[in-house]
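Look over both lines:
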Amino acid sequence: MDVSEDLLAQIWASLEETGVWVAPEAAAEVSAEELAELESAVAEVPTPTYVVVQPDLDDFAGEPAELLTQLHDRYDADGLYLAPQFYGGLDRLNLTDRAWGTEVDPWQALAVARARHTDDDGRVDDLGAYLVEAAELLTDDALPQAYEDEVASRSSTSTPSSGDGRGDDPVGGTLVGVALGLVVVAAVVGALRRRRRPRAFALPSSVVAQVREAQADRLEQEARSGLLVLGDAIRTHDLDPGDDSQAWQAALDHYDAAARVLDTGGSDLGVLDAVGAVVLVRRGRAALDAATAGKPYRPVAGCYLNPLHAPPTRKRTRLVQDGHTGDVPLCPDCRADLKAGRAPDALRVDRGGKAVLYVDSGVEPWASTAYGALGGDLVGALHRLR
């Protein structure tokens, strides 16, 4: 039995008995009382739940998700798995979750626990208390309200009014009930105040006249390669006093979200999920760059017609499709194509033998948010809609 197999056996023996594994090197961070509370909280969760605290992940490519996957696959135990990934110390961490055979999503519980137990510099005040809080919140009926009060409201008050910041509701308000994913966003209000009505461009029917799916395999490879690079950059960088802790957390959140999309897709990752993973990795890299520069992270909206294109122009474009009008961000190439009467290189997929623009695909959270082009928290949307 090699080292990793022996470690897996030790971890599973503890999980099978108590639902919790705390590695010896982390034992000092979780008191005996906290460990008992954590085991009790895990036992109360209706879904089988396992908490794995294993700082040394060298045998698992440095990824807690890989450790959790190997545990599940080896012992064939469905349920919810939680494991912290540490960055430069046991007080710097992000909780990773993986689930098999259950629809439980711990996103809100983890977000509230993080809000209650991390300081402005992103340091966890007490690892044991943090884990206990996260486990207890999984069965707390007041969790949705706690999330709104302690996480969502704080995000909305610190988010720029441009609509691209974290914390906006990507499926609320104007985004619901508008066919084809086109909405009249805030820019329309300003446009109506101008004396001259802005020129509106009709999306040519030729855009959806034929199927031209992006190569899913190539995009998946790009996403996986980018995820590895981003993970290495996160692991090798210590959070300095001058770094922006919120941007740092955004990098962790986007990294974990991209990993989730790639993991759940398996060997049959659809083109829209592959694009989503690429977008999340790119945003994670931007967040990390902002963090190390000591700047807040503000997601930049991508091109509405194709999120893989260059960043959009500052001026939004009025787009008309099937009688619906909206002001949307477009890259220079797509805008130039529309002005010239050419069909832009839009992202479209086959649905029922018919080629449709991705916003009409019904695949969430990409359709309703336009991969973040319509504003909102793309990571939060992923957790809510998947």
